[in-house]
Amino acid sequence: MFVGGNAGARAGISMKGGSLIVGGNAGFLTGFMMQKGRIIVCGDVGEAVGDSMYEGAIYVGGEIGSLGSDAKIEEVDEEELLDILATLESHGIKQRYTFTKVVSAKKSCTTSTPWNVWKRLLSDHKFEDSLQSAQRRGRTLLECPVMVSV
Fold it and tell me: HEC states along 96-114?
């Protein structure tokens, strides 16, 4: 999706793939709870960018108001930069930006369960069993401690 000007607060909220390209600035909580994909913002972003994101990447061409919970800055490699510039050019944006990449630090994932345990739970389908067990007891999964032998 391409936005030729500015995007408001929570641009790309809960994205599950694809690309969001913003030709101008984006508001606070850009990429909130992002699960996959990429967001390219040519201008500035507001406070708490990448807050509670799981996967994906946010590329910011301007200033970052502040990083969100569990977000960190990572280097943009040359291949990524060339792909971003080609994508922007295909949307008529020829200006060259110096991008800052924001990704998940993968330390919290909104619970105290470590990220590597969540990945294993999801890939081994134990998550579904835990969810069904919690539902039988009338609780949500986030109310139940997840016990996994590591």
Answer: CCCCEEEEECCCCCCCCCC
Token couple for 126: 């134990």
Q: Which amino acid is at 37?
A: G
Mean pLDDT by 10 residues, the chain (150 residues): 94 94 96 95 96 94 95 96 96 94 82 59 56 54 41
* C-alpha to C-alpha distance for 68 and 53, rounded to whole angstroms: 9
Residue 25 in contact with residue 9, Cβ under 8 Å? no
How far is residue 31 CA from its own chain's centroid? 5
21 in Cβ contact with 46 (< 8 Å):
no
Both tokens of 65, joined, read 């108001």
Distant-in-sequence, close-in-space partners of 141: CB < 8 Å, separation ≥ 6 = 127, 130, 131, 134
d(CA 70, CA 31): 12
**Alpha-carbon gap, residue 91 to 84, rounded angstroms:** 11
pTM for the predicted model, two decimal places: 0.73
